[in-house]
Design goal:
This protein is α/β, with parallel strands linked by helices. It is 43% helix and 13% strand. Bound molecules: glutamine (GLN) and zinc ion (ZN). The site of glutamine has 13 residues, from loops. GO terms for molecular function: 5-methyltetrahydropteroyltriglutamate-homocysteine S-methyltransferase activity; zinc ion binding.
């Protein structure tokens, strides 16, 4: 049986690409050095897959920054603002244009902002959004795909080039001219695709992988037609080249009839996300088409359950025969870390937990093992069964007390004692805040000193006492500054936190961290997500000490600061042995304990950040209601244990609220703070139309820039807000936390913000 890997991580097992890119951008290494690093990384990947015995080895899955940006350059889909730069480049072969599109360019008289970046489906990877306009002329500007195919060939490795399919490329982009119709745009792009495919056919490629992940989304009939148009044309252009059409991150569902009629040689489906689709697809698959079945999960870090995968593989073999089945990863392995063998510190990752895990390299071996088991190797199966068995009963995963508490959860646990109208009065009486109260979102500038302090403490260079003393000093200074600025609701500043999820993960049971489990987030940015392996529970208070210390320094209300259950889940690797909803509710109970303890310690205002609620939305709209139900419930479970007089805040970063406003309201948070300054308060309109009853803090200044906003512009924004919402409900705050800012601009901006609030009070 044949084996197929859709893509491999490219940052390097020690983040070599990140380091080389950043060194190149800083002018510290030459282009040749950067290219050498890239060649070495590609070679290592190909050799790893080749040595493992994989049949369909990907090429062109490498990228210096992003594979969609690569396609923009390959096809000449260059946004208009970069045209002048392109024409003036001394060396058109240099990556200057490429990196300029990725990162923006402000040099030699040019000034162009970077291309927009957005999340790749429901992953934490971000791609650059193609921009199409009527003035673009598409041509095969640079055939990276062919270059990399040939590069592998010179190493003696025959690869399967991977490209983003024309329809997904188009649908994932933005058409900037209304006059430009998708079908017409596709017509212009297809000759370039055809030329690209022909060049690969000529160079001796056997298979080409064409990624069309948009086939798992809700498509309009017009969008479905684009596929028919594209694949008929490409088929005609390269009759001899084998086309492998891949879909992943979900099931084909209503797009199944479309997918099976496209003239391709193989279809890849994701059986991790949508195992049930095998039943529908098998009988519909044309007799000349192979089926690549993604059974090894490319989205997590857990060992494959062979028995479950073998069931699916056998089912496929029974219907279409061994020769037509390819065993594959569910999607590219881009979303998993490199190599579990690099996790050598048993104090970080115990052998027991490590034995449950598989990173990219191990997942490749799993694909091979599944093939070998089908061929008769029963030893591999037995070893895997033993691990799965041990995991299913391991005491460090399964905690009866947590499960019992979850089972006993009632609606009352997810409901505040009284409705908001009553709570609002109670809170007004206790908090005694002025109209247009001012606050901040939580974090204050994370200076070099603060970062070093945390790092030194982690490394054991300084003692807990020394560390605590220094953090206390930072908290005290920030409280003093906030008082002098006359802010109304203060924060402690989050100086003790490295990251809003990691900080909690490190203190909760059921979480573990890796040494080297990096995955690419975008460009050279990598993240090392916490791993949730078992039942989650809070054994000790996590923030109470810092918040009560901060409260002891002031008579103003001090806002407690927590990360919400959905955000903690979204930004972690999640266990695969129970539904995400169950894991989230366990986290919610742990956060609830912290909320209740903060209240007991005299903290009357508590913010539970949920910036990831919107990004957790499933890919298909039909799945939204059930997700939103448990996501909102988890938030409510976390915050509903408190008295009416305790004010619950939540915070969300830039997001479209139009289609989920009723769910946002259902969170029943007394106050929500959101990012709005760049949209000129337009985001508030939906809150007004919905008659959102709760209090809202629309951000009045952009925290992404060091620029200090004037009193007047913030006053104007607040006046806009006051036209849309009752004055009684409006808070005044920045868009988000201030951790990436410097102190001088922060102080000045907050001073102006307080003045703007003052203007509003005088006018009211
Ligand atoms: N409380 C966090 C902070 O201020 C919120 C961060 C976020 O919304 N991403 O940094
Ligand atoms: Zn935010």
């Amino acid at each position: 049986m044949q084996t197929n890997i859709l893509g491999y991580p490219r940052i390097g097992s020690n983040r070599e690409l990140k380091k080389a890119n950043e060194a190149y951008w800083a002018g510290k290494i030459s282009l040749e050095k950067l290219q050498l690093t890239a060649r070495q990384l590609r070679r290592q990947n190909w050799e790893t897959l080749h040595q493992a015995g994989i049949n369909l080895i990907p090429s062109n899955d490498f990228s210096y920054y992003d594979q969609i940006l690569d396609m923009c350059i390959m096809t000449g889909a260059i946004p208009a603002r970069f045209k002048a730069l392109k024409e003036n480049l001394v060396n058109p072969g240099s990556p200057e244009l490429y990196f300029a599109m990725a990162r923006g360019y402000q040099k030699n008289g040019f000034d162009a902002t970077a291309m927009e970046m957005t999340k790749w489906f429901d992953t934490n990877y971000h791609y650059l959004v193609p921009e199409f306009d009527a003035s673009q002329h598409y041509s095969l500007l640079y055939n990276k795909c062919l270059e990399e195919f040939k590069e592998a060939a010179t190493l003696g490795i025959h690869t399967k080039p991977v490209v983003i399919g024309p329809v997904s490329f188009l649908l994932l982009g933005k058409i900037k001219d209304e006059a430009l119709q998708p079908a017409a745009l596709l017509d212009k792009l297809l000759p370039v695709y055809n030329q690209l495919l022909q060049s690969l056919q000529q160079a001796g490629a056997t298979w080409v992988q064409i990624d069309e992940p948009t086939l798992v989304l809700d498509l309009t009939p017009e969008q479905q037609d684009l596929f028919l148009q594209a694949y008929a044309q490409m088929r005609a252009a390269v009759p001899a080249l084998k086309l492998l059409l891949t879909t992943y991150f979900g099931g084909l569902q209503d797009n199944t009839p479309l997918a099976v009629q496209l003239p391709v040689d193989a279809l890849h489906i994701d059986l991790v996300r949508a195992p049930e689709q095998l039943d529908t697809i098998l009988p519909l698959l044309p007799a000349n088409v192979l089926l690549s079945i993604g059974v090894v999960n490319g989205r997590n870090i857990w060992k494959n359950n062979y028995e479950a995968s073998l069931g699916l593989i056998q089912q496929a073999i029974d219907v279409i025969g061994k020769d037509r089945v390819l065993i594959a990863t569910s999607c590219s392995l881009l979303h998993t870390p490199y190599d579990l063998d690099l996790e050598t510190d048993e104090a970080v990752l115990t052998p027991q937990i490590k034995n449950w895990m598989a990173f990219a390299k191990q997942k490749v071996n799993e694909v091979i093992a599944l093939r070998d088991i089908i061929a008769g190797n029963k030893v591999l199966l037995q070893a895997n069964q033993a691990t799965m068995q041990e995991k299913s009963t391991a005491a460090i995963i399964h905690k009866p007390a947590v499960k019992a508490r979850l089972a006993a959860l009632t609606d009352a646990d997810a409901t505040r004692k009284h409705p908001f109208a009553i709570r609002q009065q109670a809170q007004e009486a206790v908090l005694q805040l002025p109209l247009f109260p001012t606050t901040t979102i939580g974090s204050f500038p994370q200076t070099e000193d603060i970062r070093k302090l945390r790092a030194d403490f982690k490394k054991g260079i300084i003692s807990k006492e020394a560390y605590d003393t220094s953090i206390r000093k930072a908290v005290a200074d920030s409280v003093q500054l906030q008082e002098s600025l006359r802010l109304d609701v203060l924060v402690h500043g989050e100086f003790e936190r490295n990251d809003m999820v990691e900080y909690f993960g490190e203190q909760l049971e059921g979480f573990v961290f890796t040494q080297n489990g990096w995955v690419q987030s975008y460009g050279s940015r990598c993240v090392k997500p916490p791993v949730i392996y078992g039942d989650v529970q809070r054994s000790v208070p996590m923030t109470v000490e810092w918040s009560s210390y901060a409260q002891s320094l002031t008579n103003k209300p001090m806002k407690g600061m927590l990360t919400g259950p959905v955000t903690i889940l979204q930004w972690s690797f999640v266990r695969d042995d129970q539904p995400r909803a169950a894991t989230t509710l366990q986290i919610a109970l742990a956060i609830r304990d912290e909320v209740n303890d903060l209240e007991k310690a005299g903290i009357n205002v508590i913010q539970v950040d949920e910036p990831a609620i919107r990004e957790g939305l499933p890919l298909r709209e039909a799945d939204w209601p059930s997700y939103l139900e448990w996501a909102v419930k988890a938030f409510r479970v976390a915050v509903s244990g408190v008295a009416d007089t305790t004010q619950i805040h939540t915070h969300m970063c830039y997001a479209e609220f139009n289609d989920i406003i009723s769910n946002i309201a259902a969170m029943d948070a007394d106050v929500i703070t959101i990012e709005t300054s760049r949209s000129q308060m337009e985001l508030l309109e939906v809150f007004a139309t919905f008659r959102y009853p709760y209090e809202i803090g629309p951000g009045v200044y952009d925290i992404h820039s060091p620029r200090v906003p004037t009193v007047q512009e913030m006053t104007e924004l607040l006046e806009k807000a006051a036209q849309l919402l009752p004055a009684r409900n409006i808070w005044v705050n920045p868009d988000c936390g201030l951790k990436t800012r410097k102190w001088p601009e922060t102080e000045q901006a907050l001073r102006n913000m307080v003045a703007a609030a003052h203007n509003m009070r005088v006018a009211a």
